Amino acid sequence: MTDTAEQGAGAEQSARERLRERRASAHNDAERVLSRAGFRRSLREQLARLQETAPHVYDLDEPGDMYGDRIVESLERRVASLLGTEAAAFFPTGTMAQQIALRCWAGRTGNPTVALHALAHPEVHERNALSEVAGLRPVRVTSEPRLPTAEEVRDFEEPFGALMLELPLRDAGFVLPSWEELTEVVAAARERDAVVHFDGARLWESTVHFGRPLEEIAGLADSVYVSFYKSLDGFGGAALAGPETLVEEARTWRHRYGGTVFQQFPTALSALVGLERELPRLPEYVAHARVVAAALREGFAAAGVPWARVFPEEPHTHEFQVWLPYDPDVLAEAALRQAEETRTMLFGVPWGRGGPGLGVTEVTVRADGLKWTADDVREAVADFVARVSEVAGA
Question: Diameter of the chain by CA atoms?
Answer without folding.
Answer: 63
